Amino acid sequence: MLTAEDVVVQFDGLTAIGNVSLSMGRHEVFGLIGPNGAGKTTLVNCLTGFQVPSSGRILLGGEETAGWKSERFRKAGIGRTFQAGRLFREMTVVENVEVTGVGLGLTRRQARAQAMDLLEWVGIAGKAETVAGTLPYTDERRVGMARALMLGPAFVLLDEPAAGMSDAECDDLMHLVAAIPRIFTCGVLLIEHNMRVVMGVCDRIHVLDGGRTIAEGTPQEIQRNETVIAAYLGGEA
Ligand SMILES: Nc1ncnc2c1ncn2[C@@H]1O[C@H](COP(=O)(O)OP(=O)(O)OP(=O)(O)O)[C@@H](O)[C@H]1O
After folding, report:
1. Mutation test of ligand 1: which of 12, 15, 41 has the most ligand atoms closer than 8 Å to its C-beta?
2. What ipTM goes with this model?
């Protein structure tokens, strides 16, 4: 399990996260939604060691992670993607995925084979030799996913993977995301504004507003929740 317990994050007096608790397993796609500034990125930063909570605890498999740097989170099996791809722009697509494997101690040949399998799986193997800096944004996102999965993570945090995607691309993405827990035994924490994607792939959804939890439940429960509709879903629900 990956767990946040009573997490609070304050920035110069502003409470970005106020007493948020959640827990997710490796068998599920767990959505984190809420309006802009709700605290989603800040919470994910806590869950991946990029932000130290002002108070509260982050637990991974029951183990307290206080004092862990982001590198330790990564080694313990927490992968993530970023809103901006953060790829090595001068390297090819396959090299971008391969370096993660080499960093983990695989040989170049093993890393390349595994990277190619993952690129195949995310549907971009045909662009393996393309220079990453020339990729369209949506392909960058796929490479980011392949790279995160290269770590063999227990949990992967996907930050707005559907942003800028067409409906058809979203459909492809939804199939991939929904399959991650089953194929990789890897829980997915999904931050996403596209409600069709969120409602279509998540097993459970946690809703933040103004740094606080306003609801948690199945997509059906969240779509019917009056507080969530008022704060966020509005006409979209
Ligand atoms: N490093 C920081 N220093 C000061 N304030 C910050 C910092 N990071 C985030 N905040 C503030 O914390 C609050 C939560 O921001 P956060 O980025 O976590 O929200 P979000 O839900 O991810 O928003 P979005 O959907 O726009 O990405 C906002 O008010 C934001 O301005």
Report:
1. 41
2. 0.94
